[in-house]
């Protein structure tokens, strides 16, 4: 997107309420200068606009003033986003879908699939390594606890041994 030239006299207006028509959009932006064209692209399924439109001014300065004043403004209770518009493109990239065979992006699709599989494999290996490390840690902790019990027994905390030792001392 960054390599596309910006159209300095056409503004993208996003966040339009459903009620906003091209006439209302024209009326909202006409205070900033002479307008060449207003478009609100329609959704083919619903025949309603897709909550954005384009306003083309005759002069760049008027477009700049409109953007400065209307970005963040409210229209029909909705906050507008106003930016310079990017040039219109045919769907499917620079050449459009019709100019490319259906398999044109197959290589990149396979590359993406392969990268995704490699990433999943790495994540699975990482998870297995973490689980193995946790298991090893649990075993080591259990062995240490067992060692402490053996030490306690050897140090005379066993009640039977203590009783035997007392008996021996008494006699």
Automatic annotation (TrEMBL):
This is OLC1v1032592C1. Keywords: RNA-binding. Residues 134-148, 161-171 have a biased composition (Basic and acidic residues). It holds the Pfam family RRM_1. GO terms for molecular function: RNA binding. SMART domains: RRM (SM00360). Residues 9-87 form the RRM domain. Residues 125-171 are annotated as: Disordered. InterPro entries: Nucleotide-bd_a/b_plait_sf, PPIE_RRM, RBD_domain_sf, RRM_dom.
């Amino acid at each position: 997107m960054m390599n596309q030239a910006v159209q300095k006299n056409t503004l993208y207006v996003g966040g339009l309420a459903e009620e906003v028509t091209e006439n209302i959009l024209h009326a909202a932006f006409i205070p900033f200068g002479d307008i060449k064209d207003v478009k609100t692209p329609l959704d083919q399924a619903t025949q309603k606009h897709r909550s954005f439109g384009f306003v083309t001014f005759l002069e760049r300065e008027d477009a700049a003033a409109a953007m400065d004043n209307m970005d963040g403004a409210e229209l029909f209770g909705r906050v507008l986003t106003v930016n310079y518009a990017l040039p219109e493109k045919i769907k499917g990239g620079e050449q459009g879908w019709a100019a490319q065979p259906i398999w044109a992006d197959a290589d990149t699709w396979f590359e993406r699939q392969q990268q995704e599989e490699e990433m999943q494999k790495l994540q699975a290996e990482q998870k297995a390594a973490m689980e193995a490390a946790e298991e090893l840690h649990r075993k080591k902790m259990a062995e240490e606890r067992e060692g402490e019990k053996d030490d306690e027994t050897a140090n005379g905390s066993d009640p039977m041994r203590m009783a035997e030792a007392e008996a021996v001392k008494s006699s």
